Amino acid sequence: MGEDDAIGFRNPPRDTRFKKGTSGNPNGRPRGSMNAASALRKALQEKVVVHENGKRKRIPKLHAIMKQAVNRAATGDPKATQQMIALFRTFEKELAALDSNKYGPVVIQVIGVESDGDGHPKYPEGITET
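^ that's the sequence the OP posted. Answer follows.
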């Protein structure tokens, strides 16, 4: 046995070492396997049955989640309202691109407003008092 044939910590036997030019994963990733984003997209596209205006309707889970969040914000839930404002800011450009005549004006009722310290309401950038 030579110096290169020493077996021990960080020196596996020569016949069990990785062979030069051979992949450590010869079969590769299986086809059809999904990453987390693909799995989430697939789950949100699944249809669920909801009752709306006394009728049963099948809609994607993402639509059901969004309807539920909007309805909770509309009932005055402060946390849901904050989430809706954050979502609105995230998708502001896409929402502005929608046909305003088709959807009509958007009316938002503010449940609570932060103070600027002097007793005056502090408005986020781009929002003014009407």
